[in-house]
Amino acid sequence: MERLDAIVEQLRIWQQRINLVAPSTVSEVWTRHVGDSWQLLALAPDARLWVDLGSGGGFPGLVVAAALVDRGGSIHLVESNNKKAAFLRECARIAGLPVKVHAKRIEEFAASFAEAPDIVSARALAPMDKLLDYVEPFLKKGAQALLPKGQDVEQELTQAAISWHIDAELVPSVIEPHAKIVRVLNARRR
């Protein structure tokens, strides 16, 4: 809890200088962002190595990292915006999190990352079709993707199915009644 408190405190400080989350959601940070991120952990209780793409304001990456301290795991946060990457590094330092921040584009990171993560995640990053482009290199290494999505998830999956063969399941969000988490086991271009 102390680690999560530190993350939220830093978010509130940095949010005044750079846009990390939608300003309208800052007052709901514990449910809208922390809780929404925390629920991913139940879907991957044995995961030790995570990759979070487009980490931005640190959700779910920093929240997952707070849990991985006790599990003996680590997470790689990929964020191309240098200011946001600086925020992620500072949060990790202050909270003592097992994080490595990569200030580079996702495609560049994926091409250079040799490890095989257990989980790859991305929240509020892109439509499903584009997300599958980003996560596919990690799926090929045996990772599962956990992708929180809003109420339009079925439409996004239908659109993505035009270009992709997708082996996925929808898990209801415990935070937002209309949201789902897309657990992708495999995806390949048609």
TrEMBL record:
Its main location: cytoplasm. It is an enzyme of class 2 (transferase). InterPro entries: rRNA_ssu_MeTfrase_G (IPR003682), SAM-dependent_MTases_sf (IPR029063). The keyword Secreted does not apply. The keyword Iron does not apply. Keywords: Cytoplasm, Methyltransferase, rRNA processing, S-adenosyl-L-methionine, Transferase. GO terms for cellular component: cytosol. S-adenosyl-L-methionine binds at residues 54, 59, 106-107, 123. Its EC number is 2.1.1.170. One of its GO terms (molecular function) is rRNA (guanine-N7-)-methyltransferase activity. It comes from the Bacteria. It catalyses: guanosine(527) in 16S rRNA + S-adenosyl-L-methionine = N(7)-methylguanosine(527) in 16S rRNA + S-adenosyl-L-homocysteine. Pfam families: GidB (PF02527). It is found in: Cytoplasm. Specifically methylates the N7 position of guanine in position 527 of 16S rRNA. Belongs to the methyltransferase superfamily. RNA methyltransferase RsmG family. This is Ribosomal RNA small subunit methyltransferase G. It comes from Variibacter gotjawalensis. The lineage of its organism: Bacteria, Pseudomonadati, Pseudomonadota, Alphaproteobacteria, Hyphomicrobiales.
